[in-house]
């Protein structure tokens, strides 16, 4: 088959790009189509493929692509996918909006419907400046309509979690298969002893609710290390002397903190959430808000603990419960659980599912 892989944009190597890398392993001759690409920010594995960018690359490039959201539908529909037998779009932005040929099979691996026009629209709008809020108010309704209409250009949806599958059902009225995303585990290993601090890790955005963990550790004097870009002045003002912000760090520093923290504090609602599994692969448990993808990665009492309210009080209570039973969490058990999400397992499941879908042997189920 002639295969095309469509990705929303290539400006870094996060979870969506790791999915794309694994698909490149399955289809080493596939061509990649993306709105904009920064070659210096992506892996050599991706650079080996022929990458076609849209006209947004020329008019705004990687510096201003987020400001061109209203133009993205036109850019995606400008791609010529004539002659491709299989098209796999990797969706968190509007990647599924390409126009497939009449004989092509279009499979969408959905990390998430566009959160900034659906469930997180109020949060993104509130965090924007006055001009951006006005633009969002004007363009969001038409983007939602376009997003729903383009769901019918997809033959089969594969969701990265049951949580995302429910949102696909809610917004698109489509059913999905579920294949959890790949987690690269070999670079993570336990330390001989844990350190004296809790950890928050990942890009800091409003929906991750990092301020809840910061407030909890400030009030109790528990040491907290926060890794990730995006800590604004308000968050830093909230933090007491027990909270340390490291900003963005390299992979080795991240792995070190995963292995040496007491536990990961995970107060947000993620579509899936790879960081908790990376921390488990490092032999450390996770204290998570019990909603979203965490319900599919954290086993309460075995690989971590849940709290049921996104508040500092709930986090404090969870920390107290954790410290009373912290010696019951076994690094070997944590690692074994993380390995069930390994990249090799993702490739095997995706290969089998895609082959079956292309052959027409399966009907999608929730």
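-> sequence recovered:
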């Amino acid at each position: 088959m002639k295969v095309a892989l469509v990705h929303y944009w290539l400006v870094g190597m996060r979870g969506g790009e790791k999915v794309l890398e694994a698909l490149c392993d399955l289809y080493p001759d596939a061509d990649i189509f993306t709105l904009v690409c920064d070659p210096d920010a992506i892996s050599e594995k991706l650079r080996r493929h022929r990458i076609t960018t849209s006209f947004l690359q020329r008019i705004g490039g990687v510096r201003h692509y987020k400001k061109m959201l209203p133009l993205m539908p036109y850019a995606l529909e400008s791609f010529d996918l004539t002659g491709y037998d299989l098209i796999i779009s990797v969706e968190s932005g509007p990647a599924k909006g390409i126009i497939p040929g009449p004989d092509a099979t279009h499979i969408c691996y959905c990390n998430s419907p566009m959160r900034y026009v659906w469930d997180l629209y109020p949060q993104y709008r509130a965090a924007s400046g006055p001009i951006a809020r006005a633009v969002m108010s004007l363009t969001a309704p038409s983007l939602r309509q376009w997003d729903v209409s383009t769901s019918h250009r997809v033959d089969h949806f594969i969701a990265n979690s049951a949580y995302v599958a429910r949102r696909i059902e809610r917004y698109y009225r489509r059913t999905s298969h579920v294949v959890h995303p790949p987690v690269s585990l070999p670079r993570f290993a336990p330390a001989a002893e844990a350190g004296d601090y809790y950890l928050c890790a990942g890009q800091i955005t409003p929906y991750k609710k990092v301020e809840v963990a910061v407030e909890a550790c400030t009030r109790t004097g528990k040491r907290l290390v926060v890794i990730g870009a995006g800590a604004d002045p308000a968050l830093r003002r909230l933090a007491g002397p027990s909270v340390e912000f490291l900003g963005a760090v390299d992979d080795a520093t991240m792995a070190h903190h995963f292995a040496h923290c007491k536990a990961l504090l995970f107060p947000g609602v993620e579509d899936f959430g790879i960081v908790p599994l990376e921390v488990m692969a490092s032999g450390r448990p996770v204290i998570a808000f019990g909603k979203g993808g965490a319900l599919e990665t954290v086993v309460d009492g075995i690989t971590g603990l849940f709290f049921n309210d996104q508040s500092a009080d709930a986090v404090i209570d969870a920390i107290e419960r954790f410290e009373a039973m912290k010696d019951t969490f076994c690094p070997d058990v944590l690692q074994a659980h993380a390995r069930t999400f390994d990249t090799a397992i993702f490739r095997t499941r995706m290969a089998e599912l895609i082959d079956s879908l292309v052959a027409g042997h399966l009907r999608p189920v929730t």
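The chain has a mean pLDDT of 93.
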